[in-house]
Amino acid sequence: MKTWLFLLFLPVLAFAETSFQTVKVADGSIAECKGPVDAFIHKRGAYRLEAESPVIKGDWAIFDVKLTFLACKESQGSWGFQVVSPFSMLNYSLFAEEVQVETLDAFLTLTREEAFLTSMSWSPESHRVAVGLSDLMSSDEKALYETGAELELSVDFQLEKDLRFSSKSGIVSDERAVYGAYRRHFSLKK
Fold first, then answer.
1. Is 71 in contact with 89 (CB distance < 8 Å)?
2. What are phi and psi of 46, to 5 degrees?
3. Ramachandran angles phi, psi of 49, nearest 5°
4. What residues contact residue 20 under an 8 Å CB cut-off, 6+ apart?
5. At a CB cut-off of 8 Å and minimum separation 6, what does 11 contact?
6. Which residue from 13, 76, 137, 149 could staple onto 144, CB 3.0 to 4.6 Å apart?
């Protein structure tokens, strides 16, 4: 009998809400920060994104977005991600050479089903992204929306950074790092 009760509650346990944080890094994977190897792997930094369902204003869907920029660091004997400024200098060592990673610019790109919607230069002051409804929805979805039907949509948010790597020996290298995307599902109804 106890076995059957456990099996009955197993699906409930499987779908119970758990508290966890997803952190994305430059190769699109989910990041961990457990030691110096992870700090080196994530030398470009990492980020976490929160986006509310859009608010519709006229012909625009406006997303409130919160980006948290992170660096894998040791503090008081334990490793973990620490919140850093979006444009803070990151450092790592490579063969006894100290390398600095400077963020020159950061961009937030929105796509839907791999189609480009918009891209904006990110600044700590800007937390809203506007997308035209005609870009967000197909013509069939727009027609359904106009009739008052509720639509289930999703948008991918992806961070890109222009980075400069420099060392005391004078080596300088620039690159664009494209980080993993977050998919935000939401409902829209007129």
1. no
2. -145, 175
3. -130, 140
4. none
5. none
6. 149
**Residue 174 has which token pair?**
């620039």
Q: How far apart are alpha carbons 22 and 64 in whole angstroms?
A: 19
DSSP states of the chain as a string?
A: -HHHHHHHHHHHHHTS-------EETTSSBP--SSHHHHHHTTT-EEEEEEPPPEEETTEEEEEEEEEEEEEEEETTEEEEEEE-TT--EEEEETTEEEEEEEEEEEEEEEETTEEEEEEE--TT--EEEEEHHHHS-HHHHHHHHTT--EEEEEEEEEEEEEEEEETTS-EEEEEEEEEEEEEEEEE--
**Is-contact 99 169, C-beta < 8 A?**
no
Per residue of the chain (190 residues), give pLDDT as tens.
444 433 333 333 333 333 334 555 555 567 889 998 888 888 888 888 888 899 999 999 999 998 889 999 999 999 999 999 888 888 888 788 888 999 999 999 999 988 999 999 987 766 899 999 999 999 999 999 999 999 999 999 999 999 999 998 888 899 998 888 888 999 999 8
